[in-house]
Amino acid sequence: MFRRRTALSVSATTALLAATPLLAACGSDAHPGAAAVVDGKRISVSQLQARVKDVREAQGKSPQGGQMIMNTGRLSLATLNGMIFDQVLARSAKDAGVTVTRNDVQKWRAQAEKRAGGAARLKAMWLQQAIAPDEIDAMVRNQLLLDGLSKRLGADRTQPQGQQQLAKALSKTSRSMGIDVNPRFGEWDDKEVILGQTKDPWITTAPAEKQQQA
């Protein structure tokens, strides 16, 4: 789904200090303390820091944590990109009448765990993409929302034309939400529905699906 960078080992503590950028506790002049404002609601720098910390702590406990951390030095930008996109997707899905239940999430995750070779294996695969264990359900929900929105639009996400159709709908929603990003993190691109500096695609394949294809 949402690509993050992957990797393998080194001293986790040293790499953590070297790779995690320090975020100032101040936002733009217009929105002090905000990393971004989406539809009038703030994503605070402290919220962003907490999300990054969760990933770093989980990576630090992994045998391959050191290299994971080294390869995710732009984690703050990628994380903020995801936090903004989550809200755009949620609004697009809501406007289209697409809903996802907790049971839907649990069922999809159970199937993904089976394909991955177990719950621990799936967590490890997500962590390689800089997704902390407690964020997996949210990522699964996004996958289901994208699937549901695509179906509602009649767009095939496996085809370029379908991706363009889905992107057009998300772009329209993005423009309507007045997204304002703190300049220290870059600029939000409504057309591409992405934080400019990240260049991470948001329509990709989930880890369990990649393994199955391999």
Residue share in helices? 55-70%
- Compute the CA-based radius of gyration: 17 Å
Query: How many DSSP H or I helices?
Result: 9
| Envelope shape | globular
Strand order of the largest sheet: 2-1-3
The SS-based structural class is mainly alpha
Instruction: Classify the beta-strand content into a percent band.
Output: 5-15%
Largest sheet: 3 strands, antiparallel
CATH topology: Triger factor/SurA peptide-binding fold
CATH class: Mainly Alpha
Counted up, domains total: 1
- The whole-number mean of residue pLDDT values reads 80
Overall number of strands: 5
What can you see in these coordinates?
By secondary structure, the chain is mainly α. It has one domain: Triger factor/SurA peptide-binding fold. The chain contains nine helices and five strands, in the order H-E-E-H-H-H-H-H-H-H-E-E-E-H. The strands form two sheets. It has a three-stranded antiparallel sheet with strand order 2-1-3. The protein has a two-stranded antiparallel sheet with strand order 4-5. Helix 4 (75-95) packs across helix 8, helix 5 crosses helix 6 and helix 5 (102-116) crosses helix 7.
